[in-house]
Amino acid sequence: MKSDYTQALPPEWRGMSKVFTALGDEHRQRMLLLFEKGERLNVGQIAEASTLTRSTVSHHLKILREAEVLGSEKIGKEVFFWINRPFLEETLGNVLDYVRNEA
After folding, report:
1. CA 56 to CA 6: how far, in whole Å?
2. Are 25 and 62 contacting, i.e. CB atoms less than 8 angstroms apart?
3. Cα separation of 12 and 98, whole Å?
4. Alpha-carbon gap, residue 18 to 20, rounded angstroms
5. Which terminal residue of the chain, N or C, has fewer Cβ atoms less than 10 Å from its own Cβ?
6. Which DSSP string corresponds to 11-76?
7. Helix or strand or coil: residue 19?
8. Are 43 and 79 in contact, with CB atoms under 8 Å apart?
């Protein structure tokens, strides 16, 4: 066992906590599963496919966006979201690298 619990987290782990917190909710996981590769969806499209109200969907999307799990862009009156694949690949890859090499 390593003895220094207070050691600073590695820089490559900074986004990890937010990602795991954001993905810890089943509704947010289901929202991610709605996206096809490269697809952009707006709040209305996601709300139509879910059992949640539009305002609840917006709340969940905000959490996913703030955790950088989703990217977003406002076009006219609509905001479109997409999976931030490069960020997730890097963040989750860092976890896998640690598990493979250190744990």
Report:
1. 37
2. no
3. 11
4. 6
5. N
6. GGGTTHHHHHHHTTSHHHHHHHHHPPTT--EEHHHHHHHSSS-HHHHHHHHHHHHHTTSEEEEEET
7. helix
8. yes
Write the pLDDT tens digit of every residue in 47-95.
999 999 999 999 999 999 999 999 999 999 999 999 999 999 999 998 8
- The kind and range of the H/E element at 78 are strand 78-83
| CB 70, CB 64: distance < 8 Å | yes
Total number of residues shown for the chain? 103
d(CA 64, CA 35): 13
What is the C-alpha separation between 51 and 27, in angstroms, rounded? 9
Integer Cα distance of 82 and 46 in angstroms: 11
